[in-house]
């Protein structure tokens, strides 16, 4: 038991008989705030001065609201005024709400959606990281990634090709999987554009302007060739754009499903 502001408070107090919702916790804090304001708004009002009979609401009695207040403020209490503690309690409730919101978002995430393929560079890092970590056990993660980046830059094009080929194979599979995903889940809707689709559309405009005489077939062949030889960092930018488009598309489809 710890003495705080003239009270004996058990920091581990938790209500076992009643469950409090987020809205009820907010109401409690609002009632405390109103009570402090009605008492003149003085910042020198302490917890011992609060009249819990004026805080009660719904079917919560004085003991209920007092205990819940203790539970909410147990981690923030020090020798401070009621108003200061109130601000901390409000922040704690807000943080709790944000945490629950983030959890709901994670729960809503579509686990069946195919994952974007890793770039050649990331495939290389994943392969070499453990080996390098053993060799340089004194390095932290950032330092390790710096070494991996240097090794990648020094790698010959011939050796990079191994990782690039893995990426292309994974990319091909992803395009097939994502197409199948949208056929199964949203058969009546046009699927969102892949990174290659987005980049191709951009490149095609440029090539048509510079080479208006070029046939569609030849243009497509050249575009695919450029894409295959593209540096990882540039390709990653288009992958990000595609990922954003897919996320927006799925969000839109889910909203339509709920209508």
UniProtKB/TrEMBL annotation:
Entry's localization field: Nucleus
Keywords for the protein's UniProt record, in alphabetical order: DNA-binding, Hydrolase, Nucleus
Xref: Pfam families: HMG_box
DNA-binding region, residue intervals: 114-182, 189-257
Biased segments, Basic and acidic residues type: 88-100, 203-217
Main localisation: nucleus
Major enzyme class: hydrolase
EC number: 3.5.1.5
A GO term for molecular function: DNA binding
First and last residue of the signal peptide: none
Any GO CC annotation of this UniProt entry: nucleus
Chain intervals for the UniProt region annotation (Disordered): 88-113, 202-221
Ranges where the HMG box domain occurs: 114-182, 189-257
InterPro entries linked to this entry: HMG_box_dom, HMG_box_dom_sf, UBF1
Protein name as it appears in the record: High mobility group protein
Organism: Desmophyllum pertusum
Gene this protein is translated from: HMO1
């Amino acid at each position: 038991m710890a003495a705080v502001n003239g009270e004996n408070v058990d920091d581990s107090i938790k209500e076992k008989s009643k469950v409090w919702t987020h809205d009820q916790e907010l109401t409690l804090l609002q009632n405390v705030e109103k009570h402090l304001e009605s008492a003149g708004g003085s910042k020198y009002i302490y917890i011992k001065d609060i009249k819990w009979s004026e805080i009660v609401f719904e079917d919560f009695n004085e003991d209920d609201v007092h205990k819940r207040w203790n539970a909410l403020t147990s981690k923030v209490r020090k020798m401070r005024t009621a108003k200061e503690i109130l601000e901390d309690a409000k922040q704690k409730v807000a943080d709790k709400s944000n945490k629950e919101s983030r959890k709901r978002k994670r729960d809503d995430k579509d686990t069946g959606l195919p994952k974007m393929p890793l770039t050649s560079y990331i495939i290389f890092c994943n392969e070499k990281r453990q080996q390098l970590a053993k060799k340089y056990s004194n390095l932290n993660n950032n330092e390790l990634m710096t070494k991996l980046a240097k090794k990648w830059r020094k790698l010959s094009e011939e050796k990079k090709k191994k990782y690039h080929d893995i990426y292309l194979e994974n990319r091909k599979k992803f395009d097939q999987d994502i197409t199948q995903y949208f056929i199964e889940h949203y058969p009546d809707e046009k699927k969102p554009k892949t990174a290659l689709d987005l980049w191709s559309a951009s490149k095609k405009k440029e090539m048509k302007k510079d080479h208006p005489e070029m046939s569609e077939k030849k243009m497509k062949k050249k575009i695919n060739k450029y894409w295959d030889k593209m540096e990882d960092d540039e390709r990653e930018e288009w992958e990000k754009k595609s990922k954003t488009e897919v996320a927006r598309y799925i969000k839109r489809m889910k909203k339509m499903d709920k209508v």
